[in-house]
Amino acid sequence: MADEQKPGGSEAPLPAGGEAAGQPAKPSPPKPAAAPPKPPATMAATPWESDLARELKERFGGQIGETSTYLGQNFIVAKPEAAVPILEYLKLEADFDYLVDITAVDWPKRPERFDLVYIVYSFPRNERVRIKTQIPDGYKPETAVGVHLTANWLEREVFDMFGIEFAGHPDMRRILMPEEWQGYPLRKDYSIIQQDQRWVRENLGIESGQ
């Protein structure tokens, strides 16, 4: 005798997922992982085209190797001996009378080990310009104190951190580290955890500054 059908003449509906009653549902296949975001494209410096850039090239000729801009920041790449004359020209002829900073970057594997960077600002123009030079270890660039008095302290900081001495500076000594400190903390070969063990022992009475 045939099995009786449920009222309505149709079979009972299957539970969600299409599995028979009492059977576990099949797991859904995993969703594919999202593709990692693409890194931003590397942006390169582009030529700095302006009346000032043209004036500088005309005035200093081959002493300026590059006038470029990067993300809105204008800069000059010049020979080391041209840095102070360029600073003076920018101050007297183009109203860049504020020396914002002097800093350096260490490239220990490069023959010209250091980038030396001067940053000047003009209030009338509301404009900033960087002058970059490349110098080898041991080279003594001319001091800019005769053009900007504030170069005194800025050059002392560069000396203190990188060991770059400025020829003609009136007081070439450390400004942040103790005068007896050995080494230059912002050189790449100076370990981030390195300490002058002798100075720490003699002045703090401990074996390590860590």
Helix content: 10-25%
SSE class: alpha+beta
Task: Give the CA-based shape.
Answer: flat
Instruction: Quickly count the helices.
Output: 4
Q: Main β-sheet: number of strands, strand sense, barrel status?
A: 6 strands, mixed
What's the rounded overall pLDDT mean? 87
* Percent strand: 15-25%
Across the major sheet, the strand order is 1-2-3-6-5-4
In terms of per-residue confidence, which ranges show pLDDT below 50 for 5 or more consecutive residues? Answer: none
**Distance between termini?**
92 Å
SSE succession: EHEEHEEEHH
Would you count the extended β strands for me? 6
> How big is the Rg?
33 Å
Write a structural description.
The chain is α+β, with helices and mostly antiparallel strands. 20% of the residues lie in helices and 20% in strands. It has 4 helices and 6 strands; from the N terminus they run βαββαβββαα. The longest helix is centred in the middle third of the chain and has 12 residues. The chain is flat, with a radius of gyration of 33 Å. The model has no long low-confidence stretch (mean pLDDT 87).
